[in-house]
């Protein structure tokens, strides 16, 4: 989607045009479902988050100020929805434990054949807290400071969560590779 | 390829088509909310037509502003620079623009001019009562049922409806009286005569012209008597620190005993359950000596009994909880104070 197309659609969506909403949904649903999937425990939950996210997008679309990419703006809404979802369901618990986990060996994954689906499965099975930090830090590229703010944890906790999450992920992926 | 690269490559651009039922239930959801929205906008236009002051130009301006406000959003309200000369010139520009309905959409480049118009006074004093003229009072009553999203737009309309009146004094016969009330509000003279107006003006002052939560400088442990901050009357906390809860906390459920270290997997965390969606959350936990052992501004982060400042386990005993929160439906934050019992065994 070009920026002009986006803007036209956004404008129509603000007016509540259902066709425009559907067009916007069609354009972004698969990307956003991808985001939801990697933040969730299961496909079912990802569907819930996707729906909630789109409702938020359509009700808040008039607040999109046009600076930056629309896709990025939407993505943040879905990420926030996912964080909110697991807060409400009290699935994840953070251990405010400042101990640094042992440093990870840098394993080279190039040789192993691990499918995308398998990686996603491992992510889905992880504790939501670990998965969230992996997503926010590695994929979204937020800093530990930002993550701490988003999750209401300290920067140090975010760091130790990440290194533990990495260790767990690596262990699981190596099991798959065998 | 290391782990991070693998993860980023495989999941970073993950695209999966969601099942079609998602759109179906989504569009059902949207249907129900659209009904409310169109109902609300009918009320708005009805209310605007109902007002006798202002006439055509204001109606046109109000509608155009709804469109523009939707685009430029909330920020406009917060930017307050009142330069009266600019105000007059920009307002006449605006009036010219709006005299032709076909130019509504083109009015959006005038955002700068509008910005001046929409927020003429900085909101330095939240306790200021805002006397409203008769017609606006009626509108307040009519718009009360409108959903929060619409209210933002209405707020903008309200402000703009007022503006041309104060500026084009020679155009309207009743503006003198109106101007007086407006002046009265800006000089903060809440005299006896305006009492009834103040009563009515309260809800709209709170609902619309302010962001949902206004962080106050008050330390969390002093009990702000709820709702006091935004009303026309200021209440001072003469009692100082108090741990008594005076208002209704039906939105939350605080389990005040927990056993973090007995390894039974039950009640291992101190959790505050909230039945409604929160827009603000802040929890502080102090030990018996008044030392902070835990704080969080995120519901995700529940207390596990560890002193977050030195990493040690907290001892058995009572802890003081100061919890400030605001749900979507609340107009100000509430403070809940209480105690938590940390136990080592069941």
Q: Name the structural class of chain B.
A: alpha+beta
What is the total tally of β strands of chain A?
0
Query: By helix and strand content of chain A, what is the structural category?
Result: mainly alpha
Which regions of chain A are unreliable across 5 or more consecutive residues at pLDDT < 50? 89-104
Largest interface (C-beta under 8 Å):
A-B, 64 and 56 residues
| Quaternary structure of the protein | heterodimer
Low-confidence stretches of chain B: 35-60, 73-134, 136-146, 154-245
As laid out across the biggest beta sheet of chain B, the strand order is 2-7-6-4-5
* Straight-line N-to-C gap of chain B: 49 Å
| Mean pLDDT across every amino acid position of chain A | 83
CATH topology of the largest domain in chain A: Rna Polymerase Sigma Factor, Chain: A
Keywords:
heterodimer, A: 178 residues, mainly alpha, Rna Polymerase Sigma Factor, Chain: A, Arc Repressor Mutant, subunit A, 2 domains, 8 helices, globular, B: 346 residues, five-stranded mixed β-sheet, 40% helix, extended
């Amino acid at each position: 989607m070009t920026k002009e197309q986006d803007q036209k659609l956004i404008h129509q969506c603000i007016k509540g045009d259902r066709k425009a909403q559907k067009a916007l949904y069609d354009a972004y649903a698969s990307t956003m479902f991808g985001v939801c999937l990697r933040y969730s425990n299961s496909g079912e939950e990802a569907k819930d988050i996707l729906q909630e996210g789109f409702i938020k997008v359509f009700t808040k679309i008039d607040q999109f100020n046009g600076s930056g990419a629309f896709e990025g703006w939407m993505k943040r809404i879905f990420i926030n929805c996912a964080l909110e979802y697991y807060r409400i369901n009290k699935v994840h618990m953070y251990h405010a434990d400042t101990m640094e986990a042992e440093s990870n060996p840098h394993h080279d994954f190039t040789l192993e054949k691990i499918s995308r689906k398998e990686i996603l499965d491992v992510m889905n099975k992880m504790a939501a807290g670990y998965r969230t930090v992996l997503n926010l830090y590695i994929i979204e590229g937020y800093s530990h400071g930002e993550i701490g703010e988003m999750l209401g944890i300290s920067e140090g906790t975010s760091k130790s969560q990440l290194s533990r999450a990495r260790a767990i992920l690596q262990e699981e992926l190596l099991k798959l590779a065998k | 390829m290391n782990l991070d690269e693998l993860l980023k490559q495989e999941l970073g651009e993950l695209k999966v088509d969601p099942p079609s039922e998602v759109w179906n239930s989504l569009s059902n959801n949207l249907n129900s909310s659209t009904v409310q929205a169109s109902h609300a906008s009918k009320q708005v236009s009805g209310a605007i037509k109902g007002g006798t002051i202002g006439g055509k130009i204001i109606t046109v301006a109000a509608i155009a502003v709804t469109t523009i406000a939707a685009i430029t959003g909330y920020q406009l309200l917060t930017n307050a620079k009142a330069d009266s000369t600019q105000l007059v010139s920009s307002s006449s520009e605006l009036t010219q623009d709006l005299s032709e309905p076909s130019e509504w959409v083109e009015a959006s480049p005038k955002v700068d001019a509008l910005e001046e118009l929409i927020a003429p006074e900085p909101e330095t004093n939240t306790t200021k009562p805002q006397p409203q003229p008769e017609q606006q009072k009626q509108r307040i009553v009519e718009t009360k049922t409108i959903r929060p999203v619409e209210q933002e737009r209405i707020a903008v309309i309200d402000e703009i409806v007022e503006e041309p009146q104060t500026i084009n004094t020679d155009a309207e016969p009743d503006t003198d009286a109106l101007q007086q009330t407006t002046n009265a509000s800006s000089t903060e003279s809440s005299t006896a005569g305006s009492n009834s107006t103040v009563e009515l003006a309260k809800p709209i002052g709170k609902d619309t012209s302010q962001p949902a939560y206004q962080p106050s400088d008050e330390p969390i442990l002093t009990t702000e008597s709820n709702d006091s901050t935004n009303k026309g009357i200021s209440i001072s906390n003469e009692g100082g620190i108090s741990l008594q809860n005076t208002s209704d906390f039906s939105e939350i459920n605080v389990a005040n005993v927990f056993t973090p270290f007995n390894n039974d997997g039950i009640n291992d965390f101190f959790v505050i359950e909230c039945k409604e969606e929160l827009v603000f959350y802040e929890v502080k936990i102090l030990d018996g000596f008044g030392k902070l052992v835990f704080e969080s501004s995120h519901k995700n982060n529940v207390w596990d009994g560890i002193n977050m400042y030195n990493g040690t386990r907290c001892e058995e005993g009572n802890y003081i909880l100061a919890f400030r929160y605001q749900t979507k439906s609340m107009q100000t934050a509430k403070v809940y104070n209480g105690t938590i019992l940390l136990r080592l065994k069941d």
